[in-house]
Amino acid sequence: MFALVVARRYLFSNPAQTALLITGVALGVTAFVFITALIEGLAIRLTADVTANSSHVSLEQEVRVARVLPARAADVQSVALVSTFQRRQIRAWGPTVALLRSQPLVSAISPQISGNAFLVKGEAVAPLAVTAIEPSALDAISPITTKINAGDADLGADGILIGAQLAENLGLSAGQPVLFRTDRGVDRLLTVRGIFRTGLLNLDERVAFLSIRTARPLFRLPEGVTNIEVKLHDPGQAREFAAFLRDATGLRVTSWQERNTTLEGALFAQAQTGTLIQIFSLISVLIGIASALSLSANRRRGEIGIMGAFGVARRFIAAVFVLQGLLIGMVGAGIGCLTGFALCSWLATLTKADGTMVLPIVASEGSYLTVFALTTLGAVLASVIPARSAARLDPLEAIQQ
User: Fold this and answer.
1) Smallest Cα–Cα separation from 189: which of 198, 199, 202, 176?
2) What is the pLDDT along the chain (401 residues), one digit of tens a residue?
3) Which of 212, 229, 231, 306 could tie 132 with a disulfide, CB 3.0–4.6 Å?
4) Alpha helices of 193-260 — where are they, by DSSP H?
C-alpha cells in the first residue's frame, strides 16, 4: 500500500517531532494504565480487608412475622403470636450445605451457632458475641489460628477462644477457667484455650469462639444452626450468588455488599472518578495528535498541492494522514502499555516496614488491551480532521503559497 509508504516517509522526515509525539501518547497511556491499576488494586484491597474476617454470603432463617388471622365476627381480628424465646434456626441445614458444596463458586462453608453471652470473672462481667463452629473449620471464614498469640486453637469439649482486649479487660490468660453465661440462662465453666489479636477492636473485645458441640446445650439448640456462612472464590459475584441461593433455599440470604452499602458506594464513586481521569488523559493525547498532524499538513501544503496537480486522488491524500495517526497511535500505545506495566510492577514491589504495599496497585489490572484499542482508534479519529483538511486543499492555491 503506497499510502502507507508515504505516511512512513512523512513521519521519518521529522524524527524529532515524531518521537516527541509518540512520547506524548506513551505518557498518556502510561498514566491511564497506572490510574486503572491503582483504582482496581485499591478496590481489591478494600474488599479483601472488609471480607477478611467475615463471610461473603450469609444464610439465616427468615424473620417470622405475626400474622393477622380472620375471625368469625366481621369486626374482630386475632393475631397469631410468635414466641420471642424460641431462637430462629435453620433446622434442615444439611441439604443447604450439600447444595453449597456442589457450587464451583464456593471456597468455604461454615455452619454456625451465633448468640450472645457473658464472661464472668469475680465481679467483672463482659458481654460477648459468640460464634460456635466446627473446630476443623475454624479458619474457614476468618483466619483465627494465625492470629493466636497465646495458647492454641484446640477448642476441645470445654474450650473457648477470646480476643486479646477482652482477656486484658478481665485479666485472663490462656489455660485459665472462666464462667460462661448465655442469654438462655445457662452457666458453664469453660477454659480459655487461646487468645487471638486481629487488630480490630470489635473482634478483640467482643467476639469469642466455641465448638459447635459445646454450644448446643448452652444455647438450647440440639439440632439446628442459626446461620451458614459462605466464602466465594470471587467476592464480586456475591450479590448474584445470594440471589440464586435465595430462590433455591427460601432462606434469608445476605451478601457482603448488602452489609457494607457505604463501602460499595465509595468504590463506585472511586471508579467513576478514575474513569473521568482516564477520559481526560485520552482526550489530551488525541488533541496532541490532531494538533501535530494539522501542523504537518500545513507545513506540507506545497507537496499536497503538487500531488493534487498530478491527479492524485483526495482519498489517497486523506489516507496518508489517517495512516500517520494510526502508526503514531499504535506505536505510542504499545510503548505506553509496556512502560505502564513496568511502572506498576515496580511499584507493586515497594513495601512498608510491616510488609504491606506502599501503593495498593495490581499490575495485571491495567486494562492494557482496552487502552491500546481506545488509543489507536482515537488516534485514527483525531487524524480525520487534518486528513480532510489536506484532501480539500486547492492544488493551485497550495502551490502558489
Assistant:
1) 176
2) 666 766 667 667 777 777 888 888 888 888 888 888 888 888 888 877 777 778 889 999 876 655 555 655 555 555 555 555 456 788 888 899 999 999 999 999 999 998 899 999 888 888 999 999 888 888 888 888 888 888 888 888 888 999 999 998 888 888 899 999 988 888 899 999 999 988 878 888 889 999 999 999 988 888 889 999 999 988 888 889 999 999 988 889 999 888 877 777 777 777 787 778 778 877 877 777 777 666 666 665 555 555 655 556 667 767 777 787 788 888 888 998 999 999 988 988 888 776 677 788 888 888 888 888 888 888 887 777 666 666 565 555 545 55
3) 212
4) 201-206, 212-218, 238-249, 256-259
> Sign of torsion, CA 382 384 386 387?
positive
DSSP string, 3-26: HHHHHHHHHHHSHHHHHHHHHHHH
Grid coordinates belonging to 10: 512523512
Nearest alpha carbon to residue 159 among 169, 174, 144:
174
Enumerate helices (H) and strands (E) in the chain, giving the number of each.
Answer: 14, 12
The C-alpha cell that represents 270 in the structure block:
472511586
49 within 8 A of 248, measured Cβ to Cβ = no
Asked if residue 57 lies in contact with residue 96, where contact means CB atoms within 8 angstroms, the answer is no
Cβ atoms within 10 Å, residue 223: 9
Give Cα 251 to chain centroid, integer Å: 26
